[in-house]
Amino acid sequence: MPGMRVLVVTAVQAEADAVTAGLASADVLAADVLAAGVGPAAAAAGTSAALTSKALAGNPYELVVSAGIGGGFTGVAPVGSVVVAEEIVAADLGAETPDGFRSVDELGFGRTVHLPPGARARRVAEALGAVHAPVLTVSTVTGSAESAAALLARHPRAAAEAMEGFGVAEAAAAHGVPVLEIRAISNAVGPRDRAAWRIPDALAALTEALARFGKLITPTTTTYPTTTADPATGVDPATGEDAATADEAITDGVIAAEATTDEATTDKATAGEATAGEATAAEATGPTEEESR
């Protein structure tokens, strides 16, 4: 059985290179890696274009993965760890009011949460040895203790923050394709301290995570020798057990073989159900505009 057709979307090329290295080590042949740009808008546009192109070619993707590095919330996702999103949450999509921040869900204008397929996401988290918890998508990377505390107040189960996951999930949902998000943690969410960032370590963790993920989406087949059964009884005289008269093949591909009931992304429209964190993919390579000034 061929592997699943998978699209992996990153923000920058350094992340795409790390992902490609991981998938290659697992001999994944049916995955494409796209560096779509920084932020949810670029991520959504790039993902949608890739999904449309593949669908028009008659070979649509079966799974989309938002992957990269990011920030982890202290005590939940330490530097060097990996997070698989339980929920993908647009954490700053809404409005400031005299009573505080209100999400677009609360305002009645849209949604802020996408749910990856539950059983699949849990299985991936287990295989990667990852934290399985909500991941926030933000348009502005958190840079102070006050901002981090405000995010946690709204999303107390948050594990990480990133800048692209929700955009990727929006595009995937529009095309009816399930989505996952995988983040390797390079820094703690909070006060901006570049000296404490561990981007090379996070990229290495991302490569290892995608290598493990690759083994889940690429089935392996083991063929056992034909046994000889007594035609009258159907019993193998060597073992005394029922025996097949043809080669038996066992296909092992946990993700590819899962039930189709877990294929579709389920979307929540209730802001109270959103809990997430941040991952900083934009800072994987090169100086930012802020640093250049």
In short:
Helices cover 30% and strands 25% of the residues.
Structure description:
The protein is an alpha/beta fold and 293 residues long. The protein contains eight helices and 13 strands. It has one domain: Rossmann fold, CATH 3.40.50.1580. The chain is 30% helix and 25% strand. The strands form three sheets. The protein has a five-stranded mixed β-barrel with strand order 3-9-8-4-10, surrounded by four helices. It has a two-stranded antiparallel ribbon with strand order 5-6. It has a two-stranded antiparallel ribbon with strand order 11-12. Strand 5 and strand 6 form a beta hairpin. Helix 1 packs across helix 7.
SSE diagram, text form:
Blueprint: E1 6-10, H1 13-25, E2 31-35, H2 40-56, E3 63-72, E4 82-90, E5 94-97, E6 100-103, H3 104-107, E7 113-115, H4 118-128, E8 131-137, H5 145-154, E9 160-162, H6 165-174, E10 179-188, H7 199-217, E11 220-224, E12 248-252, E13 266-268, H8 289-292
Parallel strand pairs: 1-2, 1-3, 3-10, 4-8, 8-9
Antiparallel strand pairs: 3-9, 4-7, 4-10, 5-6, 7-13, 11-12
Helix pairs in contact: 1-7, 2-6
